Amino acid sequence: MRLLLKFNLILILVFGGGAAAAGYFARSFLQQTAHDQVVQQARLMMGSAGAMRTYTSKQVGPLLQEHQARIDTFLAQTVPAYAATEAFNYMRGDYPEYTYKEATLNPTNLRDRAVDWEADVIQVFRGHPEQKEFSGERDTPAGRELFLAKPIVAVGPCLRCHNTWQEAPPAMVRVYGKDNGFDWKMGDTVGAQIISVPMSVPLGIADRAFRSLMFSLGGIALATLLLLDLAIVTIVIRPVTRLSKAADQISKGDLSVPELAIKGSDEISQLAESFNRMYLSLVKAIRMLEQE
Questions:
Q1: pLDDT digits (tens, 9 = 90+) for 15-47
Q2: Which of 49, 117, 215, 252 has the smallest number of Cβ neighbours within 10 A?
Q3: Residue 197 in contact with residue 38, Cβ under 8 Å?
Q4: CB contact at 8 A, 148 and 192
Q5: Which of 157, 173, 176 lies closest to 165, judged by CA?
Q6: What is the DSSP string of 177-193?
Q7: In the sheet that 143-153 helps form, which strands lie side by side, from edge to edge?
Q8: H-type alpha helices, the chain
């Protein structure tokens, strides 16, 4: 087996082992990084939904309050939860994987009623009032899902519509009835803002980053292997080949072989220098024998 081929096999094994180890540790790191990235993106979306709630409560609601009373019609656009949900639905045009819900234990609008797992999240906030955020993963028929939640606490503006049905705006009672969404208490955690996204999203991000990393490592390894091959051929293979050819000619009795050129002081140069001394000694010895 040729020397260069042996070197290549050794280098391929070394690079392959290094790439495998790097890939093993990088995959879990990239998955965690992608998970954190998606959670952070969900956190920004949650902040946007919260800002929409505040904007609706402080500006849109008061602006339309007199108009709503004059036409004696309930305008859902004045409800912060409705505004935040509708705004997020528009945002889903760019982020279709993300879903948003203002899950509530006792909502006026039944589309906001919390399902079992959402009720469990709300109970976490009710049991730990100091907790302002909760995230986790859950299994669904469509696969594993990541979620981020923040509590919804009943405050003064909420009780104008959710204290008792007798005190609620009559127009709202006509739309939603008097059986749901009432008897809220000041300071109670009544629901949670929940953003959900399939785990396929962070895993897809991690897989794409992993493939890019491995392709990059493969390209770097190939380029490094070619450069090392060039260096081995120039520094080792060619000088050794010249030395081998000279030794072969001498062994066949050809004493007209020129001395090997010596460049540098490395081990190959020292070997060539030793070969030249041996060659000169051999030539002298043969000539002495010829003279006798």
A1: 888 888 888 888 889 888 888 888 898 999 999
A2: 252
A3: yes
A4: no
A5: 173
A6: -SSSS----TT-EEEEE
A7: 99-104, 189-198, 143-153, 134-140
A8: 3-55, 61-71, 80-91, 116-127, 156-162, 170-176, 200-232, 238-251, 267-291
